Amino acid sequence: MRLNRFLAAAGLGSRRHCDELIAAGRVTVNGQACTNFGTQIETGDHVKVDHKLVRPKETLTILLHKPAGFVSTRRDPHARDTVFDLLPAKFSRLFNVGRLDAQTQGLLLLTNDGDLAQHLTHPRYKVEKEYEVMLDRLWDPTLAEKLRRGIFLDGKRARLTSVQQFGPTRLRVVLQQGLNRQIRRMFYEIGYEVKRLVRTRLGHLRLGDLPRGSWRPLTKSELAKLVIPSGAQRSRGRNAVGAVDEAGLSIPQRHQ
What we know:
Elements: H1 3-9, H2 15-23, E1 27-29, E2 32-33, E3 47-49, E4 52-53, E5 61-66, E6 95-96, E7 105-111, H3 114-121, E8 129-135, H4 144-149, E9 151-153, E10 156-158, E11 162-167, E12 170-175, H5 182-189, E13 194-202, E14 205-206, E15 215-217, H6 220-225, H7 236-239
Helix pairs in contact: 1-2
């Protein structure tokens, strides 16, 4: 197993973050500093980060219904509430898969599985994210094509792959990108203010009727359906602590 994957499996963050740890010289393998990203870790090797021994952890992935007013980070000096305040202390090793801005509600995944996080957030995998949007005034359907063609934000073409109206001021939109505050900024550029934004789907995962502020581990079936990059497939049936039907699981199905 490559060193960055080993560190990600130990719950130290995404593979990109683990690469940063390696590049900074904070990782040793069998007592020697290691800055080679291609280093292969074998059974019996001793890997340390900042002089602390690390081992691969059982993976856990949970789905949280994020309420408005909570930021998607562990610590923020300017924010009172973070999504981690909604979780038990025993989940301290989880990190969020992407972010929702403070006022956006809905589906947020948290995991200690770096490979899974890499797949769900990397642009090349084009994982769909679906949102319900409530606007400040009546929607003009002729503008939908402009959103599908794209609007330039910070020099990048921001596009929505689908725009469907289901009320006078309410839309259901799908995107595959993840630019900062993308949906709010796109609608602002065409003269609208987003009054309410809720993420309802990520890939095949749906928010469903999970109450705001509640969480649940992904089921074994949900984990199996998540597409993992080639070469990263692991025995999730054995390791996935997030599977609610796995023998010995002590994590409750929901928490409020």
